[in-house]
UniProtKB/TrEMBL annotation:
Keyword ATP-binding appears in the UniProt entry: yes
Protein name listed in UniProt: GST C-terminal domain-containing protein
Entries under PROSITE patterns matching the protein: AA_TRNA_LIGASE_I (PS00178), GST_CTER (PS50405)
GO biological process: glutamyl-tRNA aminoacylation; post-embryonic development; reproductive structure development
Key words, A-Z: Aminoacyl-tRNA synthetase, ATP-binding, Ligase, Nucleotide-binding, Protein biosynthesis
Highest taxon of source: Eukaryota
Lineage: Eukaryota, Viridiplantae, Chlorophyta, core chlorophytes, Chlorophyceae
Record Pfam families: GST_C (PF00043), tRNA-synt_1c (PF00749)
Similarity annotation: Belongs to the class-I aminoacyl-tRNA synthetase family.
Family annotation (SUPFAM superfamilies): GST C-terminal domain-like, Nucleotidylyl transferase
Length: 257
């Protein structure tokens, strides 16, 4: 029996998840394990490490491997040499150019115009170029602002179509679930909710034991043999004691008839 081969591990800075790489792997059926590097910084480059110790460094290389390593039929790389070359070019372009910065607006405007009469970046099906661009936009904190501006209708239409791919949404969900800050925040919120629940239960229990009650009895009193006196008349102002006496008189009169 042949032992199962360990999948290569994709490490990255958790604040810059490799959405495109994981989505491409899911689209092609490639087996890749994603794991954020706790020591990574903003300068850390995504790296795919194999059991042999060999590595692929950088998203362009990792994307190409992910597209080719799976056993599922896909359109990530067209069979046409010309279209495949265009895909290669656009993968490199998107990874290098669609990044946060002063030039991002110009790049997005150019892509919007390019997609005016196209459903996909290359050909007539989702290619690795589409996945690369989608991943860069998904990771960009500025994309939502540009998307909601209304100035990029063609790019927004294209984006919304790509986002409906189950593999893309699954990649987003899986990678965001690895965010340590969100995990800690969720754990903290759960702890606070649990503590509040315990305090609430204790308070309710204590309150139930200490709540006011009219269940007051006179030790040794017999039915029909209790005489109540008139409460003292208020002189000038009605004191709280006067009201209390009147209520107690009425209570015992009703209880002992």
């Amino acid at each position: 029996m042949v032992a199962a081969q360990e999948p290569p591990v994709l490490t990255f800075w958790e604040r810059n998840p490799p959405f495109a790489a994981l989505a491409a792997a899911k689209l092609s059926g490639a087996n890749i394990a994603a794991k954020p590097d706790p020591k990574a910084t903003k300068d850390t480059v995504a790296t795919l490490t194999f059991a042999t110790g060999e590595q692929l460094v950088g998203l362009p290389l990792i994307l190409r491997y992910a597209a080719r390593a799976g056993d599922r039929p896909s359109t990530l790389f067209p069979s046409s040499p010309l279209l495949a070359t265009q895909v290669d070019y656009l993968v490199d372009y998107c990874i290098a150019s669609v990044v946060s910065g002063s030039s991002l607006e110009g790049v997005l405007t150019a892509l919007n115009e390019y997609l005016a009469f196209r459903s996909y970046l290359v050909g007539y099906a989702t290619s690795l170029a589409d996945v690369a661009l989608w991943g860069q936009l998904q990771a960009s904190p500025l994309w939502k602002k540009h998307q909601s501006s209304g100035k990029l209708p063609h790019l927004t239409r294209w984006w919304e179509h790509l986002a409906t791919h189950p593999e893309c949404s699954a990649a987003v969900e899986e990678l965001l679930a690895m965010d340590s800050k969100k995990i800690k925040a969720a754990a903290s919120a759960a702890a606070v909710a649990n503590a509040c629940g315990q305090v609430g239960e204790a308070t309710a229990s204590k309150g139930a034991g200490e709540s006011g009650s009219f269940d007051i009895q006179l030790p040794g009193a017999e039915m029909g043999k209790v005489v109540t006196r008139f409460p003292p008349e208020p002189s000038g102002y009605l004191h709280i004691g006067h009201a209390k006496a009147a209520l107690l008189n009425q209570h015992f009169a009703d209880m002992y008839q």
